[in-house]
Amino acid sequence: MALINKIREKSGIAVVVIAVSLILFIVGGDILGPQSMFGNNQKVGEIAGENIDLKDFQLKFDEARQAYEAQTGRTPSEAENQSLREQVWNQYVVDLAYKTEYDALGLTVTNDELVDMVQGNNISPAVQQSFTNPQTGVFDKTQVISYLKNLKNLPPAQQQAWTNFEKSLAQDRLRQKYEGLLRVGSYVTRAEAEKEYQAQTTKAALRYIFVPFYSIADTTIKVTDSQLSDYLAKHKDEYKGFDSRTLQYVSFPVVPTKQDSMDLYTKIKDLARGLATATDDSTYARSNSDTPTKLYWSLSEMPDQLKTAVKTFIPGSVNGPFREGNTYYIYKYGGIKKDTAFTAKASHILISKQGTNDSANVAARTKAADLLKQLQGGANFEQLATANSQDPGSAQKGGDLGYFREGMMVKPFNDAVFGMTGTGLIARLVESDFGYHIIKVTEAKSNTLYRVAAIGKTIGPSQATRDAVYTKADQFALQSKTKADFEANAKKDKELIVQTANRIPESAANINTLQNVREIVRWAFNDDTDMNQVSSVFETEDQYVVAVLTGRTEKDSPSVDDFRDELTLKVRNEIKAEQIAKKLEGINAPNLEGIAQKYGAGALVETANDISLATGFLTSAGLDPTALGKGFGVKVGKKTKPFKGENGVFIMEKISDTPAPAIADYSIYKANLQSKNMQAGYLLNEAIRENAKIVDNRAKFF
What we know:
Layout: H1 2-32, E1 43-47, E2 50-53, H2 54-72, H3 78-105, H4 111-119, H5 125-130, H6 141-149, H7 156-185, H8 190-201, E3 203-212, H9 225-234, E4 244-253, H10 258-277, H11 281-288, E5 296-297, H12 304-309, E6 318-324, E7 327-352, H13 358-376, H14 381-388, H15 392-395, E8 400-405, H16 411-418, E9 424-425, E10 430-432, E11 435-458, H17 463-479, H18 483-492, E12 499-505, H19 518-525, E13 538-539, E14 543-553, H20 564-585, H21 592-599, E15 604-612, H22 625-633, E16 643-644, E17 648-658, H23 667-678, H24 681-691, E18 695-696
Antiparallel strand pairs: 1-2, 1-18, 3-15, 3-17, 4-12, 4-14, 5-11, 6-7, 7-8, 7-11, 9-11, 10-11, 13-14, 16-17
Helix pairs in contact: 2-3, 2-7, 8-23, 9-20, 10-11
């Protein structure tokens, strides 16, 4: 009885606990997940003090994706989605980081200015490129005006795409104005120009001893972690920390088995019988094919095997299978019909016109005529095209342009090719806006269309094969509780190869040859993933992967291991420099040759005559600013003490110097420096981004 009373007393608590547990089980992911109000915040990043909210970012991404789909007519791939997210992020950077700078300077693009860029007298290159006639290669303003007049009748997605395009034009113009202000605001003083003149014109003759670091074997120099740590502490500004992860992994490829091949062959035979008896063979083919195909084909559209075989087909017959890569095709032939347009195949050699003057054009025509004469004498067309044609797209293919339909080429070229009744070399030069063409028709014009209902079946692993490979990968992961287990189990399986991916950034989409592996990267960067922890099985497009986390670097706490190779090289060279310099300082000899002889193997004595400080190059040491500065700084007839250069230790001696002649006008040197200052677009971009203190958390969400 006492026991029953105890149960009754505790039952209320038990009911509450069970109820809360059920609620957390049902909605726990929403309440405590990374996107919840109690989980991690939804901040994708921060730019210039402004937070980028996940919902806002996703909304802009959805707009960009819809515009892409409207433009291309297809859903973007994962890689293309990553590119679209990058575009959206860069737009935030422009809107928040750059706009602050523009507003501070009062920079704007007016509506009138934008109209002028789109359809006025100063058309933007981006607009010109979008509205260039593909046949003539010439920009057509009337196409722009016609498009804008019809804009309201276009689908909303296309209207939005144009709005975004105009916005990008304005932003590009703002950037040009900003960079222009930077250029005109940059000033080179007379003193700077004179210094540049002296550096380029003052000459000297130097003799020197050079003892390269490589003259001492690396194996003789022991570098300790303590020395590496000291060097890193002294040069911390040179070695910025970064977030990365290092993984080892094994992959289990999912490939078709022999049974999969046999099953596919059986399937193809069944489809061939169905295709032969189908009353609507085009619908039957379309509904059973793994690849999209058409019903009427010109020879130019056919794969090579079909192009050869179709001429032997009998109407009503089913033919094949024919293999193209990993896809097997069967074809039902239904006869021919005539198209409204002709197709032909040709090769050409293009000799471009040089400028607009008559003499240049005469030279181009003379060269083309000479080549035509060689071809008429029996020369090889493909060889001459590769060596002489100024059409880079076809020259590397021996001039081959492939198949093209009537009307696709510029009119003179089109008329020449489709005016031929057979094949062979056209016996005259054909002139177009692009230059002079030598044309060889390799397949005569034809307007014959072949009715071919095609079914393509791609060989791939069956679900049973996938399941078998997954089971093997899962068994490996279950048996690999530690890194040691991982390595031992990988050694047992002769088919497995342990691969390493070093210093993967958090934004990585690919790892070595593995594509679209964001899930693996997010696992590696997850706070709950410990060092040497083995993952569960990850699925990629064509394989399963099991990984182990073997290393990590953190942005806020750079360590020796983050830069071990670079630091080891630097410290080792410092130790070598000390040893070399100490040995050189202890040698008493009247000249450089004597010092080198007493030093022994590794010491080189060389001369550099008539060199300048700006462009000096030392024979064995190469470009070494420290050595040049020391050499120019010493007086004639004097030697420096041993000092460390970029790649070794030097003793420099100046033999002679020739001061730069005095001049009154430094404008050339001033202009050169000014030109260098104008090439500051990249540095400007980096400065604005650094000033905006950008925090990018996208990798935590995508």
